[in-house]
Design a protein that fits this description.
Elements lengths: L1 H8 L8 H14 L3 H8 L3 H18 L3 H8 L6 E10 L10 E2 L4 E10 L5 E4 L3 E2 L4 H13 L3 E4 L1
Parallel strand pairs: 1-6
Antiparallel strand pairs: 1-3, 2-3, 3-4, 3-5
Helix pairs in contact: 2-4, 3-4
Keywords: Metal-binding
Pfam families: DDE_Tnp_4, HTH_Tnp_4
GO molecular function, one term: metal ion binding
Length: about 160
């Protein structure tokens, strides 16, 4: 995927090959290392680490299932209801970033919304949203009337 993207944009040379760029992004997503730490570990600058992560995450997002498509596939697949859940992913935000502070968990974080089938198969995930907001209002803002076609169980 990264190799095809580089070819499409005419990128002739990069500090990291596509495999190392993918590894950089996996480390970032799994461990949450700072861009400075990533840059030092992979022998690139902080700005380059940020650019590689942003580029690859955008490529992954483009391949992810979109909400409308996921919901359209759910009904023919015999799903009578879907499960909405959210999870808070902790961040190292400062206290001044009030939109990211979750009063429920008493930590700063990003809220990720997930719509899944009853057996737990993930059909769709949202982008990262401020941790302050509750699951249901976030869902209503994100998916609006589309979800109302289904019976959604909310925890």
């Amino acid at each position: 995927m990264i190799r095809r993207h580089r070819k499409a944009i005419g990128s002739l040379w990069r500090r990291l090959n596509p495999g190392r760029q993918a590894l950089l992004v996996l480390v970032y997503l799994r461990k949450g290392e700072t861009f400075t730490e990533l840059g030092a570990g992979f022998g690139i600058s902080t700005a380059t680490a940020w650019r590689y992560v942003e580029e690859t995450v955008a490529l992954l997002w483009a391949r992810s299932p979109k909400l409308g498509r996921a919901l359209r596939r759910a009904k023919p697949d015999g799903l009578h209801y879907l499960v909405l859940d959210g999870t808070l992913i902790r961040t190292d935000r400062i206290k001044a970033d009030r939109p990211y502070f979750s009063g429920k968990h008493r930590v700063h974080g990003m809220n990720i919304q997930v719509i899944a089938s009853p057996d737990g198969t993930i059909l769709w995930t949202s982008g990262a949203l401020p941790g302050k907001a509750h699951d249901l209002p976030l869902c209503q803002a994100q998916v609006g009337h589309t979800v109302r076609k289904f019976s959604v169980w909310h925890e």
